[in-house]
Design goal:
Elements: E1 2-5, H1 9-16, E2 22-31, E3 37-45, E4 54-59, E5 62-64, E6 67-69, E7 79-86, E8 90-99, E9 111-114, E10 116-117, E11 130-131, E12 134-138, E13 153-156, E14 160-163, E15 171-175, H2 183-186, H3 192-196, E16 201-202, E17 216-218, E18 223-224, E19 231-239, E20 243-253, E21 263-272, E22 278-284, E23 292-298, E24 304-307, E25 312-319, E26 333-340, E27 346-349, E28 356-362, E29 367-376, H4 386-402, E30 406-412
Length: about 425
């Protein structure tokens, strides 16, 4: 999405400083697509010179949900976020009021995220209670078994993801039968009563594969794990009600300790309300054109592949969602997986092997953004064949491309 912020916006806000108790903005969005765009993510960067404590967004006088996020963790809000529906070839203006007092307005949550330590005194896997918001570990410390569901887990009413907190950093998935938020109740491990009531469950065995779109190193012949890091962190950045963001940080990572300059890598996973896909934003503290990376999806057993050979790749297949020794109480799960990468970042699309449908990735600067998605055959609201799933993937890529044809302009009304 193209963003245009009037030059002088931040200078003007800075001059207002603390004298103002409210600021009024217009956020103008122009949809140049030939189709209507629904649930378009809108982010408005806030100046630090005006201490925003609350916000109100209206669409032609009608209040719509929004959220304020502290993305850098310094204790003050630095971004306003909301979702917009836009008619084709039309311009629409949303009214924003920022307040220097009060608290963020409350709206019905459409997303949920949790991260917790395992409480050994509680036997039930869905009644854990040691909630945390971030954790950092030192070199050679593996917190995988310290954390319940092995890392942060997040959801909207359609899908749920989790990120393994270890050298794999694998993206894993939880499929649902019906739409709704349920991780707070099941904590990724539904009991028998919850399963009987129609709650979802883990639907994919990932092992040491790429899982769903995990970014790894590349040694010239195969993907490599995220080993050789000085510090590894996971942090919940945003909790909703419209988006959740989970951040993974690897400090001083050496893909090859004998030859390379270390790099800091930060990966943010953003899940929006009402979308089954997840946005992945990777940033580095230096230019990484000298490195190569790998990503893609696991080659689910008995799966069939779909690719447009221009960055979109996916599969549809059936396998046990856990290891064979843990398969009691589980059934084979059928899932569709998908990844969409910028074609400019693809050095090679590798042939499928027993583990992965993979890409070799180049990043000529310091950042990469791509998207991942999945569906479970269990869904009452989803897709139930490879033909349906692959048609969804093709349409999904088109919706991602629609973002590029939406222009955003922020104007001050004060």
């Amino acid at each position: 999405m193209k963003k245009i912020i009037l030059s002088g916006l931040f200078i003007l806000l800075a001059s207002m400083a603390t004298a103002q108790t409210a600021l009024n903005l217009d956020v103008e969005l122009r949809n140049d697509n030939s189709q209507k765009v629904t649930g378009h993510p809108v982010s408005v960067v806030l100046t630090k010179s005006f201490s925003t404590h609350s916000a109100l967004v209206t669409d032609n006088g009608r209040e719509i949900p929004c959220q304020l996020d502290d993305l850098d963790g310094d204790g003050s809000f630095d971004e306003l976020f909301f979702l917009a529906d836009l008619e084709s070839k039309k311009t629409k203006t949303f009214q924003v009021q920022l307040f220097a007092e009060g608290k963020p307005r409350e709206y019905s949550p459409q997303v949920y995220v949790e991260m917790m330590l395992t409480n050994k005194s509680i036997k039930e896997s869905n009644k854990q209670n040691l909630y945390i918001s971030q954790l950092t570990v030192d070199r050679d410390v593996n917190p995988y078994n310290m954390l319940h569901h092995h890392g942060a887990a997040f959801e909207n009413d359609m899908v749920a993801y989790r990120i393994y907190f270890d050298h794999r950093q694998t993206v894993d998935i939880y499929g649902k039968y019906k739409r709704g938020l349920e991780l707070r109740q099941t904590q990724f491990y539904p009991d028998d009563a919850q399963k009987a009531a129609g709650f979802g469950d883990d639907v994919l065995w990932v092992g040491s594969t790429l899982g769903l779109g995990t970014l790894r190193g590349w040694d010239g012949s195969k993907p490599t794990m995220i080993n050789n890091v000085e510090h590894r962190s996971q942090r919940i950045v945003a909790r909703g009600p419209l988006r959740t963001i989970v951040e993974v940080t690897d400090k001083q990572w050496l893909q090859d300790a004998s030859t390379e300059i270390p790099v800091d890598m930060t990966t943010r996973y953003t899940l929006y309300a009402g979308r089954r896909d997840c946005q992945v934003d990777v940033t580095f503290n230096r230019n990484v054109s000298d490195l190569r990376f790998a990503t893609g999806t696991i080659n689910v057993k008995n799966s069939v592949e779909h690719s447009d050979n221009h960055g979109l790749r996916g599969c549809w297949g059936t396998d046990w969602p856990v290891s064979e020794k843990d398969s009691v109480g589980h059934k084979r799960e059928t899932v569709g997986l998908g990844i969409c990468l910028p074609e400019a970042n693809i050095e090679r699309q590798l042939p499928a092997d027993k583990d992965n449908y993979a890409f070799v990735v180049k990043i000529p600067g310091q950042s990469l953004t791509y998207f991942i998605t999945f569906g479970s055959d269990n869904e009452s609201f989803g897709y139930h064949s490879s033909k349906e799933w692959f048609a969804y993937l093709d349409g999904w890529k088109k919706t991602l491309e629609q973002k590029k044809a939406v222009t955003q302009l922020v104007r001050i009304k004060n």
